[in-house]
From TrEMBL:
<keyword id="KW-0330">Glyoxysome</keyword>
<dbReference type="InterPro" id="IPR011076">
    <property type="entry name" value="Malate_synth_sf"/>
</dbReference>
<keyword id="KW-0576">Peroxisome</keyword>
<dbReference type="InterPro" id="IPR044856">
    <property type="entry name" value="Malate_synth_C_sf"/>
</dbReference>
<keyword id="KW-0808">Transferase</keyword>
<comment type="pathway">
    <text>Carbohydrate metabolism; glyoxylate cycle; (S)-malate from isocitrate: step 2/2.</text>
</comment>
<dbReference type="GO" id="GO:0009514">
    <property type="term" value="C:glyoxysome"/>
</dbReference>
<dbReference type="GO" id="GO:0004474">
    <property type="term" value="F:malate synthase activity"/>
</dbReference>
<dbReference type="Pfam" id="PF20659">
    <property type="entry name" value="MS_C"/>
</dbReference>
<feature type="domain" description="Malate synthase C-terminal">
    <location>
        <begin position="434"/>
        <end position="555"/>
    </location>
</feature>
<feature type="domain" description="Malate synthase TIM barrel">
    <location>
        <begin position="178"/>
        <end position="429"/>
    </location>
</feature>
<comment type="similarity">
    <text>Belongs to the malate synthase family.</text>
</comment>
<dbReference type="InterPro" id="IPR048356">
    <property type="entry name" value="MS_N"/>
</dbReference>
<dbReference type="Pfam" id="PF01274">
    <property type="entry name" value="MS_TIM-barrel"/>
</dbReference>
<dbReference type="GO" id="GO:0005737">
    <property type="term" value="C:cytoplasm"/>
</dbReference>
<dbReference type="InterPro" id="IPR001465">
    <property type="entry name" value="Malate_synthase_TIM"/>
</dbReference>
<dbReference type="InterPro" id="IPR048355">
    <property type="entry name" value="MS_C"/>
</dbReference>
Length: 567
């Protein structure tokens, strides 16, 4: 039995020919569909396979380095600025000039790649739509392939949808948001596509298929000679940015387009990456359009990085906002770094959903959004994220009122004070109480998110917030941390210590509450019980799993061998 790319045994499998016309060494195990076949062409698959073959060993090495870093942190070390790359941080250099097509990114909307979402987001009035193959998507075969079809049609300008239930036709407006695409992180496999007998790297499949089919039309219709544009998630070190840079250069060479055409914004959403921001931009110098504060994943990463540090316990997750010193320091240093290097510093997500049935509660929620966005624009961010089209006017108004006619603040807000931010600032332990309600909310949200993910939804409205995998990850790792160290819930006067018995009772009670909230019929049809098992196992595991989605992925992989009757 071989050991596959991700360190798991590769089961011995009988060679099955796919319906798809595949190049040598490529085997497709996903369901055949004539629409998918237009994406999974022999040439497109050869492009993906060439990327996989050239970069798989670099990716394996980068993931091994992550494991080594984790071991170091678990033994007591803290993340720090790398002395070996001090020269990169101290030298004066800038990234390639920002393409005019994306100079103005004041408000960006994000969401999964389903057809209606793609149309509505491009029509939303936002400056950018980040189409997400990552945290907002449950990466089953149908979702991934339909997403590729939808993006190809969107770039071609032909995308439309007839909603028979509402008797409404959705199509693109004359003016649309600029499209960025976020592929999956380096760690996620694509188990439906085997290359040389092992699962393809998910992000190379997402990037490769989209780029191959759309680069030419995109540069003509959207990028004004540049593009395509991407968001890059979950990186921990500049060596991972270097791999992306090499992938981009290879793609440009194959396509015969100028070096520096492809541009990407990197999400700074892991704690180790905040110490590598200059180095990440340096590796992507010719391909960068900035960094983004991926703040929910960043909180998740703080717990994960310090999983063996009982002195660094988080308070209730609702208390870990951008006013916490370590979060403010991260945002300020990101702005300083980006503007010094001539690129965008993008703010974080407003996850609120308009509350139509309660105007008073809706206004309270909107006021929170306005305050958050005002803080961002005054700090120097060049733009921000919203999860729902209903938030775009409020966000846009704040940024326009504070930036006037300027497209961005790259040259006007330098944040020289950010030069004084220290390692201690970035690592300061967050303050706040831990409560029974915090434990309950984590459990309730985590289970409901996993249930939705297992049934094909990666972007889930829960309690007036749009939740994605990052929120479920915070819920999971915080529960795990509180259980492992038997923390005292000191915020509600109960003084109860978290242990397995207490957690078991909380899970039982929250499952009953979920059933009551969603209704017995939906509860029985949904995968709540399976989700509960997965989530509970992850929270009580002796070792913290790196990613919830890696474990849960095995539940949504469906292999479709070719049937002899159809030959």
């Amino acid at each position: 039995m071989d050991i596959g790319t991700y360190g798991y045994p590769t089961p011995a499998v009988k060679k099955i020919e796919s319906y798809y016309d595949v190049p040598e060494g490529v085997d497709i195990r996903g369901r055949y569909d004539a629409e998918f076949a237009k994406i999974l062409t022999k040439d497109a698959l050869k492009f993906v396979a060439d990327l996989q073959r050239e970069f798989r060993n670099h990716i394996k090495y980068a993931l091994e380095c992550r494991r080594e870093a984790k071991k170091k942190y678990n033994e007591g070390a803290l993340p720090e600025f790398d002395p070996a790359t001090r020269y990169i941080r101290e030298q004066e250099w800038v990234c390639a000039p920002v393409p005019p097509a994306v100079a103005d990114r004041k408000v960006e909307i994000t969401g999964p790649v389903d057809r209606k979402m793609v149309i509505n987001a491009l029509n939303s009035g936002a400056k950018v739509f980040m189409a997400d193959f990552e945290d907002a998507l449950s990466p089953g075969w149908e979702n991934l392939m339909r997403g590729q079809v939808n993006l190809k049609d969107a770039v071609a300008g032909t995308i439309s949808l007839h909603d028979k239930a509402r008797n409404r036709v959705y199509k693109l407006n004359d003016q649309t948001a600029k499209l960025f695409v976020r592929p999956r992180g380096w760690h996620l496999p694509e188990a439906h596509i085997l290359i040389d007998g092992e699962p393809a790297t998910g992000c190379l499949v997402d990037f490769g298929l989209y780029f191959y089919h759309s680069y030419s039309a995109f540069r003509r219709t959207q990028g004004a000679g540049f593009g395509p544009f991407f968001y890059l998630p979950k990186m921990e070190h500049s060596r991972e940015a270097k791999i992306w840079n090499n992938v981009f250069e290879k793609a440009e060479k194959v396509a015969g387009i100028e070096r520096g055409s492809i541009r990407a914004t990197v999400l700074i959403e892991t704690l180790p990456a905040v110490f590598q921001m200059n180095e990440i931009l340096y590796e992507l110098k010719d391909h960068s359009v900035g960094l983004n504060c991926g703040r929910w994943d960043y909180i998740f990463s703080y717990v994960k990085t310090f999983q063996a540090h009982p002195d660094r316990l988080l308070p209730d997750r609702v208390l870990v906002g951008m006013t916490q010193h370590f979060m403010k320091s991260y945002s300020d240093l990101l702005i300083r770094t980006c503007h010094r290097r001539g690129v965008h510093a993008m703010g974080g997500m407003a996850a609120q959903i308009p509350i139509k049935e309660d105007p008073v509660a809706n206004e309270v929620a909107l006021e929170l959004v306005r305050k958050d966005k005002l803080r961002e624009v005054k700090a120097g961010h060049d733009g921000t994220w919203a999860a729902h089209p209903g938030l775009i006017p409020a966000c846009m108004e704040i940024f326009n009122n504070n930036m006037g006619n300027a497209s961005n603040q790259i040259d006007t807000v330098k944040r020289e004070d950010g030069a004084n931010i220290t390692e201690q600032d970035l690592l300061q332990i967050p303050r706040g109480a831990r409560t029974m309600e915090g434990l309950r909310l984590n459990t309730r949200v985590g289970i409901q998110y996993v249930a939705a993910w297992l049934t094909g939804s990666g972007s889930v409205p829960l309690y007036n917030l749009m939740e994605d995998a990052a929120t479920a990850e915070i819920s999971r790792v915080q529960n795990w941390q509180w259980l492992k160290y038997g923390v005292e819930l000191n915020g509600d006067g109960l003084g109860v210590k978290v242990n397995k018995e207490l957690f078991g009772r909380v899970v039982e009670e929250e499952m009953a509450r979920i059933e009551k909230e969603v209704g017995t019929e939906k509860f029985k049809k949904g995968m709540y019980k399976e989700a509960c098992k997965i989530f509970t196992r992850q929270c009580t595991s002796p070792m913290l799993d790196d990613f919830l989605t890696l474990d849960a992925y095995n539940y949504i992989v469906v292999h479709h061998p070719r049937e002899t009757s159809k030959l």
